[in-house]
Structure formats: structure tokens, C-alpha cells
Amino acid sequence: MSIFLLEEILVPILELFEDDTQSLHSCLLVNRFWCHYAVPILWRYPFEDRWSGRHFIVNSYLECLDECSKEWLLKFFCGIFPTSVLDIQPAFDYIKFLRKLDYQALHQAIEFWCKYKGIDTHVITQDLEPDYVHPTSVILDILIDLIVERSTNLSKLSMSVVSHREGEFLDLSQYEEFACTFLPKLQFLDCDDCIPGNLLLASRIATNLSKLNIECSWGNDVEIFSLLKSQKKLQHLTVTKRWPHLDKDALENEILSNSLTRIDFKNNRNLIDNGGPLCVLSVCKNLEILCFDDWKPFCEDDFLTLATTSFPRLRKLVFTRCKPPIALATMIKTNGLNLQEFILTWQNNERSNPRHTQVIQAIAYNCPNLTYLDVPIESKDLQELYHLLCNCRKLESLTVNTSANDNKEGFYYSVDHFLPKMGLIIPKTLNQLKIFAPWKFSAESLQEFLETCQAQIKCMELYRWINDEHLAVVTRYAKEKKNLRVLILRWTETTYPVRQKAREAISDLQAFNSIGRRIK
Predict the structure, then answer these.
(1) Angle at 103 between CA 101 and CA 107, to 5 degrees
(2) β-bridge mates for residue 511, sequence order
(3) Three-state secondary structure string covering 320-345
(4) Segments in 271-319 forming alpha helices (H)
(5) What φ, ψ does residue 238 adopt, rounded to 5°?
(6) 7 lies in the same domain as 72
(7) Which residues lie in coiled coils (predicted)?
């Protein structure tokens, strides 16, 4: 009875450490009972980036092969295959714990493992006609067959194509029986449109996705649309390289338009073919988060239609590494009342433009419910920043970022006239302040800002031109207010003794030199 009770308590606790590999490894060493319940959690996502030495996982998977497969490998590789790997009997059947199959990561791990074991050269089979094969592809096929047979709990699949060479892409039609078993349970799919058959098969069977990441590089828009419109529960869609041509009329009455709450656009540098119009998204009335990252071309007329659409639940809007569309200010005016988070960085080669000021103005007068704001502020925008702080009284986090126009070595502008006034109007709700813009101010201005600031700032990050006098001012503030817990100084000119004294009042003080290295 006590063992059952311990299991009932232990397993939910271990589940909390699903993303903490180091802690789970420690749990393995407690005793056999703990090990028995920690191993299945540890081996759910073995190819995530948080794992180190992925190729060692291949060892454990090969150990799980049956004797017949092991003998075939030894015979096929004609004595160059390491027999020590196949002689070991695994303590667990690690394959059956797998929750996410990442085809590309598995391929890379096997490729590295082959080089590590010295079998990275082509193998000549013992037929009448010599045949050159790739060891990586052979082992990959065997492990995929093993996963198909034993991994009954798969809920996530990443099957991006490695290359067009046979054996380096996953063809679901070869495992249709297996696909019909696990695809209906699939919640996350990461793929590209290189193999149209995979998309068509998924559109028939994998209809319960909650998250879909798809790279649209090959123009198979019909198959992409078929996959999208088949979804019943899709909430998060990420599209890279290109937005496909979608039928707005067909999409309008689909369940998809009601279920989608987040759309991410990433890494589109195709200046010739930008794909289909974005205005089809206007039917997604439950959209909460819309993000564009490194999305170069915007068709202004198309974006204007999107910008004038009201999304009643839109709470987060992100434009990073983009050339902002002209209608961005219009979009903020249309949906600003609901916005809680707004992040914006200009494209690196984007010069100073009046639309930047228009965007800051639109935020200042139309987004009263913002809690998180990260925007570039140029010297000409200080007055608009003042109005923004006066009107956005619910701000909890503010990042004053640098713009491409100001991001030049040695460039700065003085804010001694502005910083004290900023302290008077900072919202009381603010607890995090980051200043990356090239602001230069005296220790006296900083002191006046902190004295007049009514917010309980818990985290502060300052960039450049911060010397010992500035740090002494912040230290006094931390001792008096007792609320500042984190202070990060980048490109700092402070000295070690002053930083040590500051650490007596600030529990987490981090300092970095001009090349980004952390200093004591």
C-alpha cells in the first residue's frame, strides 16, 4: 500500500521536471523505484536541443533491436559494425517511451554516430555487382521501422526533408498502416511541402492537430490548403519561407477560422514570390497572437485589408527584423484597445522614416491596456514616448530599444532633459525597465529619475555609458526601496569594487564588457 501511495505521489512530481534533464538524471540515481518512473519521462523527447551528445542515444536505440536485426546489421556491414553496441541488453525498451519523432534530428544523430564509430564511408555489399550505400540511410531505415513498431504514444512529429536522396526523407505512404494508428492522435506536426503525398495523407488522417509548423518552399499550395482546411482543433500555425495561396471563401466557413488563435510568419526573403494574400486571415476572428519575424516583403494593398480588419481578441502583435508596412499604424488604431503586448524592431537597413513616429503615436493614443512594450525610440520620438507613458498606465514591462538609424558605433544622444520627466510619468505598474537605445545621461539625472519614479522596479537593464557614479545611484535606490532584484549592465564602464558593493543590495547583478563577455 505504501508503494502504491509513493507511486501516486512520485509520478506527478517527476512530470514537473519533464524539461529539466539534469534533475531527471539525478532522480535515476536515487534507487530502482525512482529510476523506473524517471526513465520514461526522460526518454519522451530525446532529440530536443536540451540534450547533449545526441549520437549516444543512437547506441541505446540500436540496443533495443531484436536479435534478427542485429545479426543482419553485422552481416550487412561486413565486420566494420561495432559489435560491442549490439552485445548489450538494454535495461529499458527506450523506443516505446518516444513522444516526438524528429526525423531530421534522428538523421543527424545517426550520421554523427557513424562518423564517431568509423563507418562513415560507403559500404560495398557482397553481391555480384558492387553496390555503394550510405550507412546513415541503412541504420535510419531500421530505426524508423523499430519506432513504427513500438512507439505507440507518439503525439508530435517533425518530418522536414533532409535531402531528396532516397532514404533521407520520410515517406508516410510506406507506413500507411502505422500512420493510420498514430496520426489521428497527433497534436503537433512540423513539416515542409516538399512531399505532397505526405500532406495529402496527413489531411485525411491527422485532423486533430493543435500546432502546425510548415515550411512552404515548393509551391504545393493545393496540398497545404487541403491540410489546413481538414483541421478541427488547430490553434497555432507557423509558416516559414512563403505564405501559400489560400481560398478565402472556402476558408471562411471552416472550423479552422474559429480555432486559430496564433499565427507566426518566419524567414521570408523571397522578394519575387511572396505567395498568396494575407487578407484571407481576416476571417480568423478569434486570433489572439500575430507575429512576423524576418518577413521581408509586404504587399501594401494586401496588408491594408488585413490592417483594417478588427480582431476582437488580438492581444499580442510582433514585427521583428521586418520593414514595417505603411498600414501598421492603421492596424494598431483598429485593434489597439485589446492589445496587451507589442514588439517591434526595424529592419537593419531601414532608415529613419516618418512612419516610425506614426507607429509610436498610434500606440500612445490607442493602446491603453498594454502591459508589455518593446519598441525602438529615436531622439525625435521622445515626445511621443512621453505621451505613450502618460496614456499606457498598465505597463508592466518597457524596453526602449535602439533603431537601425541610431545603431552606429559611438552614436548617442543626451536625455538629461527627458529622464527626470520620465520618472514623473512612469506607470506605477511597471516592474521591468530595459534601455538599449543610445541614451546618455548623467548620474544626477538618473538619481532624479529614480527619486520621482513611483513604480516598484524589480528588474532593470541598462546599456553603455554606465559608470561607477551611475551604479552608486542605483545601489542607493536598491537599498532604500528594497524592490530591485535584478540589474543587468551591458557594455559597462564600472569597476569591480563598486559592483561588489552593489551586490550587497541587489541579489542578481550581471555585468558585461564591450564584447559581450560577462565580468565579475
Answers:
(1) 130
(2) 489, 519
(3) EEECCCCCHHHHHHHHCCCCCEEEEE
(4) 300-307
(5) -120, 125
(6) no
(7) none
The answer to whether the CB of 261 falls within 8 A of the CB of 235 is yes
Place of cell 535531402: 163
Q: Does 395 fall in a domain?
A: no
In the numeric block, which cell numbers belong to residue 294? 524576418
For 151-192, list the strands marked E by DSSP.
156-158, 188-192
Would you mind telling me the total number of residues written for the chain in this entry?
A: 520
The C-alpha cell that represents 298 in the structure block:
509586404
Q: Which of 420, 429, 413 is nearest to 380 (CA)?
A: 413
Per DSSP, 243 falls in state B
What separation in angstroms does the CA of 369 have from each of 337, 339, 364, 391, 509? 7, 6, 11, 9, 31
Q: Does 52 lie in the same domain as 156?
A: yes
Residue 87 lies in a domain: yes
Q: Are 364 and 392 in contact (CB under 8 A)?
A: yes
The closest of 10, 125, 119 to 72, measured between CA atoms, is 125
Is the pLDDT at 162 greater than 60, yes or no?
no
- Residue-range definition of the domain harbouring residue 14: 1-42
H-helix or E-strand containing 365?
A: helix 354-366
- Predicted TM-score (pTM) of the model is 0.87
Task: Please state, in angstroms and rounded to a whole number, the distance separating the CA atoms of residues 482 and 475.
Answer: 10
Q: How many structural domains does the chain have?
A: 2
Q: Which residues pair with 132 in a beta bridge?
A: 124
Which amino acid, residue 220?
Answer: N
Is 307 within a domain? no
CA distances from 248 to 218, 235, 252, 383 (A): 21, 18, 6, 42
Question: Residue 315's closest CA among 259, 372, 355?
Answer: 372
* 160 and 119 fall within a common domain: yes
Residues 3, 67 within the same domain: no
Q: Note the pLDDT tens digit of each residue in 402-451.
A: 876 666 666 889 999 999 999 999 999 999 999 999 999 999 999 999 99
Cell of 437: 537605445
